[in-house]
Amino acid sequence: MANKPITGEQRVFMTGNEVIAYAAVMAEADIMYGYPITPQNEIMHYWTRLAPKYGKKFLQTEDELSAGFTTIGGVLAGRKAFTATAGPGNTLMQEPMSMAEMMRIPTLLIVQQRGGPSTATVIYSQQEVTMTTYGGNGEGFRIVYSTSSHQDLYDYVIKGFNTAWKYRFPTFILGDGYQAKMREACVMYDPAERGIELVKPTPYMGAPGTPGVDRKPSHMRNTYNTEEELYEVVMNLAKAYEAIIPEVVEFEELNAFEADTVIIAHGVVSRAAKGAVKELLAEGEKKVGYFRPITLRPLAVNELREIAQRAKKLIIAESSYGQLLKQIKEAIYGTDVEIHTILKPGVGITQEEIVAKYHEVK
Amino acid sequence: MAKVVKIALAGEGGQGVQSVAEIIAEAANEEGKEAIYIPNFGVEQRGGVSIAFIQISDEPIGSPKFEKGDIVVALSDRAVRRTRQYVGENTVFVYDSSIEGIEKDLPTNAKKILAIPALEVSKKELHPRVFNVLIMGAVLEATGVVTIEQAKKAIEKKLGYKFEKDPSLRELNYKAIDRGASLVREQ
């Protein structure tokens, strides 16, 4: 049996879904659980082609609730398990993911956002931001990476497994239908050759030995009897989550801490935003900057506040009716920066539109 | 800023626009250029207008979709109506001359409009199955984004296993791409 599909550095030209399947193999994932939904189907398809060659497994479940819970089961057994979904499937995933939040289970869920609400389109959107960051009945103790390119998909799927297993919070890769289906180039590599150490999974349950005799019993719990008992548990989760924020937060920026007008976007829209800012800078506009939160949860609150205190105007562009906007407003609460928006639920945003908006509001 | 060539190809599901787009994008990538190809599709299993967006540049490309194409190709009546929105003052708009009933729907703001008899030529001179390859030849002639040679290599990569079984298919595909290019040259 072959050891790894990628050795050295390989430039490839393929769809994002295929890139994700390769990245999961290279991250030494053991098993994928999944239920089909466009536009993430091909993650499953490519995984099922690759998995048997590398001694890995796949289980198709009867729905997304089951795919989420079986992923948790895989993790409890000490396997690097993951799943992928989109749209209405992501809605169903919220129940297992809130269980993972409660029990600190390092699941990895890849979301390829499609249009909403409900069935809507199978194409593209950024309308699953609120659900992926704060979905389920809980407090949103999760880590969410918003990717913008195939290179990001490869890098962050590998990183995502490490983040999940290192910090033991459910981790999400938030892509979208464009990233899922488009073809572009990216460089695949063996993480070991780049000095990236993969965190080894360990079982939560069924470890060798006798519980209470030669090891501690494994006591997994998501049900509590008293208000006070639950309060203590959730406050401990909050404390643990807040402690890791400085290590986990990621963002990208261009001239954002010097600019009067800062364009903020995440995911695939950030490509248009960055392109717009580069174009404007090249045209001689000096006071324009770009900021892209890579982690949407936790968000780079300190940096956003610094920008909001310094800049005069923000332009927030997203393919939803204000899901990122809401989080940014919360982050910069109390500052008096002027906010402008391009909000296009379920529709792509081009560089031209952002440049035009800048000229309109500057 | 590096020039980005933007191409939109639209036709009925099954006409092969997505395959052509994939081959063009792969050929550009093989030439060492940056390329993005994104298919646009609805929930239907069959039928419906299928659009492919391609962008090719010497530098990394920003947003996967664009407002106005450099070349927009429409291969059915519905595709003509659907792609009007991607036509601007710098757009070359190409449609098949056999499409009927679209006289009033043709864009009025294009830089140039080309009606090419691709369907007729593929039927009479070649084979209907290479209609899309003929269109690819036309697109490459109109944009120069990749050389015809590179495109042939990309076709070989994609369909080589079929050519092995039946070498006349290779000949047919190569003829179609050359003939498609000539349809644009003759305009």
TrEMBL record, chain A:
Q: Does the keyword Oxidoreductase apply?
A: yes
What are the record keywords, sorted? Oxidoreductase
Chain ranges of the Pyruvate:ferredoxin oxidoreductase core domain? 259-340
Q: Which residues form a coiled coil?
A: none
Presence of keyword Oxidoreductase: yes
The record's Gene3D superfamilies line, in alphabetical order, gives: 3.40.50.920, 3.40.50.970
Q: Name one GO molecular function term.
A: oxidoreductase activity
UniProt cross-references to InterPro entries, sorted A to Z: 2-oxoacid_oxidoreductase (IPR052368), PFOR_II (IPR033412), Pyrv_Fd/Flavodoxin_OxRdtase_N (IPR002880), THDP-binding (IPR029061), Transketo_C/PFOR_II (IPR009014)
Outline the extent of the Pyruvate flavodoxin/ferredoxin oxidoreductase pyrimidine binding domain.
Answer: 23-243
What is the name attached to this protein's record?
Answer: Ferredoxin oxidoreductase
Q: Which Pfam families match?
A: PFOR_II, POR_N
Automatic annotation (TrEMBL), chain B:
Descriptive protein name:
Ketoisovalerate oxidoreductase
What species does this protein belong to?
Answer: Carboxydothermus islandicus
Keyword rRNA-binding applies = no
Record GO terms (molecular function): oxidoreductase activity, acting on the aldehyde or oxo group of donors, iron-sulfur protein as acceptor
Ribosomal protein is among the record's keywords: no
Keyword set, alphabetical order: Oxidoreductase
Occurrences of domain Pyruvate/ketoisovalerate oxidoreductase catalytic (ranges) = 13-181
Q: Which Pfam families match?
A: POR (PF01558)
**What InterPro entries does the record tag this protein with?**
2-oxoglutarate_synth_KorC (IPR052554), PorC_KorC (IPR011894), Pyrv/ketoisovalerate_OxRed_cat (IPR019752), Pyrv_flavodox_OxRed_cen (IPR002869)
